Amino acid sequence: MERPLFIPVLLGTARRGRRSEHAARFVFEQAKKRAELETELIDVCQLAMKLDDAGEQMKDPKFSATIQRCDGLIIVTPEYNHGYPGLLKHALDMNLEEYIHKAVGICGVSAGSFGGARAIEALLPVMRELGLVTIFWDVNFGNVQNLFNEQGKLLDQSYVPRLDKFLNELIWMTRVLRYGRENIPEPKAQ
């Protein structure tokens, strides 16, 4: 039997009162139910980030080791003013080679009806530049203030099959890319 896929969930905001934390915990709990997955919740609040430097010069060794070990990644990001949080970008920029040829799925969160769609669109070129391969499905947690109660319990069960579809695609893409990394030599530059 193949070893489980390791796909952590990255919560991309440090704001107090962040409602995207409920969405990230829901995604994490659903991923934990999958026998073929190993996961962990990574909170940008917990990352040791130097804010007076940028890029790989500010690597957090523990975070870098986690990304190096992972087969894929789930990002849960709120949409702030039609974009994603700067701290998420800062955290993502701490690594580079660790991401290459790995799958990523993005879940957007917003108080409005678009569910972070604009933040997801803004992240797509960043994912490409980092060497991550985005999947076809997103999960958009729109009107998040109505989706979870104060304790973080999901109130709208229609998100369960949406997330299942998302996870199915992410798992498939992650398996394909892991097989490629492990079995197919990279093309040589000409």
Q: Helical residue percent? A: 25-40%
Spatial gap, N to C terminus: 38 Å
- Describe the main β-sheet briefly: 6 strands, parallel
Mean pLDDT rating: 94
Summarize the structure.
It contains 5 helices and 8 strands. It is an alpha/beta fold and 190 residues long. The protein has a single domain, classed as Flavodoxin domain (Rossmann fold, 3-Layer(aba) Sandwich), CATH 3.40.50.360.
General description of the model:
By secondary structure, this protein is an alpha/beta fold. It has a single domain, classed as Flavodoxin domain (Rossmann fold), CATH 3.40.50.360. It contains five helices and eight strands, in the order ββαββαβαβαββα. The strands form two sheets. Strands 2, 4, 5, 6, 7 and 8 form a six-stranded parallel sheet that branches. A two-stranded parallel sheet has the order 1-3. Strand 5, helix 3 and strand 6 form a beta-alpha-beta unit. The longest helix is centred in the last third of the chain and has 25 residues, at 159-183. The chain starts with a strand and ends in a 7-residue tail after the last helix. The model has no long low-confidence stretch (mean pLDDT 94).
How does the SSE layout of this entry go?
Layout: E1 5-6, E2 9-11, H1 20-32, E3 37-38, E4 41-43, H2 61-69, E5 72-78, H3 86-92, E6 102-109, H4 117-130, E7 132-134, E8 139-141, H5 159-183
Parallel strand pairs: 1-3, 2-4, 2-5, 5-6, 6-7, 6-8
Q: Features of this protein?
A:
alpha/beta; 190 residues; two-stranded parallel ribbon; globular; Rossmann fold
